[in-house]
Design goal:
Blueprint: H1 4-11, H2 18-32, E1 45-50, E2 55-60, E3 67-72, H3 80-95, H4 100-110
Helix pairs in contact: 1-2, 3-4
Amino acid sequence: MSSPSCLRQAASAGASCPSCVYLLHAWCFFVFVPLQEKPYISARYAKMWYKRSYTVGIRRKFDDKKQIWSFGGFKCGFTKDVLMQWGEECLKHFDAGGTEEEVKAGVDRLCPPKD
């Protein structure tokens, strides 16, 4: 096992102990890199991000497998993270038994379509 003085040396610009540098990098990775939440995955519906139009599309994974609707856009004023979070909420509502019309009405209240 390496000593704390060796770790201090590895942290400095002139580190000469490769095993200590490796340990320092591993320690920094586990301490400073935040754990990312895994995206919610539905068995019956999927969300897609369209970067050119800055929208989130909701599609079926069954029957015709076509897109139901999309929301967002450059003029909506929300970030990609917010729109993707709303997409995950749509998937959760579908899995909880919500109908397509109910979920679409909820999204239209939050982000009304712009003409």
